[in-house]
Design brief:
Blueprint lengths: L5 E8 L3 H12 L5 E5 L5 H4 L31 H5 L6 H14 L4 E3 L3 E6 L6 E5 L2 E10 L19 E2 L13 E5 L3 H12 L3 E6 L17 H12 L3 E5 L3 E7 L2 E6 L4 E4 L4 E2 L16 E2 L3 E2 L13 E3 L5 E2 L2 E2 L3 H4 L3 H11 L7 H6 L17
Parallel strand pairs: 1-2, 1-6, 2-3, 6-17, 7-14, 8-9, 8-14, 9-10
Antiparallel strand pairs: 4-5, 5-6, 11-12, 12-13, 15-16, 18-19
Length: 375
């Protein structure tokens, strides 16, 4: 190993909502010897959002009533207060994250690209290779974002499409009409933005998520998105086509040819927009996790890798059985679970985490996660 490798108790990879939120939790425990590394900037994933995209979860000044702002990542903060809007843009939310990092004096280092993570010998059990040398740590917490890792290989020719994450502004896209492959949140968000810009949009999806009902907001369109979709539908500029499974996209002289499972073919003059979701950054250290259906890392009840002791996961890729933690107000409840494990192994008091439990920020009993709604 290169001489001069820096030594830390904890390395957090990613300075987004998950990495900054966990950093504050460690600070509250009095843990100082850690670092947060990010290849780009604080809130980089949010800075990549299309200009028209807004948070689907609302921010509201509610902390004084004991109900933490849904988009807060830590106690005593509120994006509604600091940003002043109910549904922040990505840029506005990144500003909130920068403010949190500054206020709590978090040790964030940007421009640091993590190239690999390998296990070593105790007590500093991990070697983290970066573009600026090596870092050694006893624990690694993977908190990378998703926006940089789009899914672009679900069918033949998917790479010919314009993935949602590559759109800077829907106002700048050419043409009068766009085909959108995928009808979940990002696909409908694209359709709504195009309609607002005076363009037409045709959305194709196999499962018709716009008609799905259920209690878990991670599995259906949010009320915010449904309301915007209804307005866009009223304009006559958005068409929804369900039961459509795209099997391939080809380029031709007239634009693009979409082939469907039932043999149907649709021609699009402009490059189709691919709203297929994201692979997630944990795939960069795939060998250090066991995987569930090649999509989500298998985790212990404490969100630790089942095959690599000392490696934890925080953020939207966290799954516990059938429970999905993809929203901030969900995965922030697991910061204290991870911090508790690390603190105990470092022989640090976990008493400050009781305040997290009192404010709904410490979810370690998953039996209370019921999907029942009376009405």
């Amino acid at each position: 190993m290169r001489k001069g490798a820096r030594l830390f108790d904890i390395v957090i990879v990613g300075a987004g909502a998950a990495g900054i939120g966990l950093g504050v939790t460690l600070r509250d425990l009095g843990i100082e010897n850690f670092v947060i590394l990010d290849r780009s900037a604080v809130g980089a994933s949010f800075l990549r959002w299309p200009r028209q995209t807004r948070f689907i979860t609302p921010s509201f000044n509610s902390n004084q009533f004991g109900i933490l702002d849904l988009n807060s990542i830590c106690l005593q903060t509120s994006p509604a207060y600091s940003v002043g809007v109910e549904h922040p843009t990505g840029e506005e939310y990144a500003g909130y994250l920068r403010g949190v990092a500054k206020h709590f004096g978090l040790p964030v280092e940007t421009g640091i690209d993590v190239l690999s993570v390998t296990t070593g010998t105790r007590p500093k059990g991990f070697r983290v290779k970066t573009n600026r040398g090596y870092v050694r740590a006893r624990f690694v917490v993977w908190a990378g974002g998703e926006m940089q890792y789009p899914r672009t290989h679900d069918f033949q020719g998917a790479e010919l499409c314009l993935h949602y994450s590559k759109v800077i502004s829907f106002d700048d896209l050419s043409g009068d009409e766009r085909c959108i492959i995928g009808g979940s949140e990002s696909g409908i968000d694209a359709a709504v933005a195009l309609a607002a810009a005076g363009r037409r949009a045709v959305v194709f999806d196999r499962e018709e998520p716009w008609n799905r009902r259920g209690p878990d907001p991670s599995e259906l369109l949010s009320p915010f998105t449904k309301a915007r979709l209804n307005s866009a539908m009223d304009s006559g500029r958005v068409t929804l086509r369900g039961g459509c499974t795209v099997t391939g996209v080809r380029r031709n002289a007239n634009g693009y040819r979409l082939a469907f499972e039932d043999g149907d073919v649709v021609h699009c003059a402009e490059k189709p927009i691919l709203a297929s979701g994201f692979a997630g950054s944990a795939s960069l250290v795939r060998s250090l996790f066991d995987w569930q259906d090649n999509d989500f890392p298998l985790l212990t009840e404490n969100d630790e890798s089942t095959v690599t002791r000392g490696l934890f996961l925080v953020g939207p890729q966290v799954r516990q059985g059938d429970i999905i933690f993809c929203f901030i107000y969900k995965f922030r409840q697991r910061f204290a679970v991870v911090a508790n494990q690390i603190a105990r192994r470092l022989r640090v008091s976990t008493e400050p985490l009781e305040e997290y439990r009192q404010h709904g920020m410490y979810l370690d009993d998953l039996s209370c996660c019921s999907d029942d709604c009376a009405c």
